[in-house]
Write a structure and sequence with these properties.
- By secondary structure, this protein is mostly helical.
- It has 2 domains: 57 residues; 118 residues.
- It is 79% helix and 0% strand.
- Helix 3 runs antiparallel to helix 4.
């Protein structure tokens, strides 16, 4: 019987060792599963946050470009009305009347991080328009160029904006619409 007890004790010790080893192995697997699960969840959360930020950026840029497009359209109307008056021989305000453009969007674009999401060539053309119209208008006001020459130069600026910039802005916003199509983003 003594040998049975000894044999039983050896088996019991072996079972205890196996239980201890399996306990630690299971703990290692639980730890690995937890780390992998947390990593995968964090990675998915990060992807969702990036996607959300991209969608918000597209939406903000869409509204910025549309607003610039509308502002330029309104300013073209103001400039056209000025040109019509300048061509009237009874109008004497060509050299003295200011051009009062709407510039809320253009001025606020300086402070918006969304501005740099607009294609640079569109920003360059808008900037050139405002700069050149101001320069030409000042040259007319100072008498450095004839009113008829100024009218021609201002008409060239209008033509460029109407034929190049406004269609390009429209195309750019349509691309953004296409990107956001099928998402939950409402424009």
């Amino acid at each position: 019987m003594g040998s049975d007890k000894l044999e039983s004790k050896v088996k019991s010790d072996a079972n205890e060792e196996i239980k201890k080893a399996s306990f630690w192995i299971s703990q290692i697997f639980i730890l690995l599963a937890t780390v992998i699960g947390v990593y995968l969840a964090a990675n998915q959360g990060y992807k969702q946050a990036v996607q959300f930020d991209n969608m918000k950026s597209y939406k903000d840029n869409y509204y910025l470009q549309k607003s610039l497009q509308y502002e330029l359209t309104d300013n073209i109307s103001i400039l056209k009305a000025y040109l019509v008056k300048c061509q009237d021989s009874n109008y004497f305000g060509a050299r003295t009347d200011p051009l009062s453009f709407y510039t809320l969007v253009w001025e606020n674009m300086k402070f918006s991080s969304t501005t740099l999401g607009t294609p640079p060539e569109l920003l360059r053309d808008a900037q050139r328009f405002y700069r050149e119209v101001d320069r030409i208008h000042n040259e007319i006001a100072k008498g450095n160029i004839a009113i008829s020459v100024g009218v021609t130069q201002l008409q060239e600026q209008i033509d460029h904006i109407e034929k190049e910039l406004l269609p390009a802005l429209d195309s750019s916003t349509k691309k953004i619409e296409k990107i956001l199509e099928g998402t939950d983003v409402v424009l």
